[in-house]
Amino acid sequence: MLGLTVRWSLVGAPEGTEERLAAYVAETSHARFSQMAGLRHKTWRQVPGEWFEGCYVFATDGAREEFQRTFTAGADESPGSQIVGAPPILVEACDVVAVAEGRDGFLAAPRAQG
């Protein structure tokens, strides 16, 4: 599977940045990526005070390459960069070796509940 990771550092980010990122994902980003052509799925992850990232899995090489090219060209102005106050520290293509759905099932939601 064709992965892409985009990561921002949260080291030294203003207080409340993590909550602003979570709100942006819930209110805007989730809907945008839920119907994106060429995307199999996206996961947003963060370690408060350390980093925030988007993990993408694409259906084709072309879809991943186009997204990476377009994103990289505007990364400094992306919503994540605007919220964090800095561009991503990592934009990296990768291979996703496998995905397993556990017994409790997959939950696609704009905001995860702990």
Automatic annotation (TrEMBL):
Q: Its domain of life?
A: Bacteria
Q: What is this protein called?
A: ABM domain-containing protein
Organism equals Nocardioides cavernae
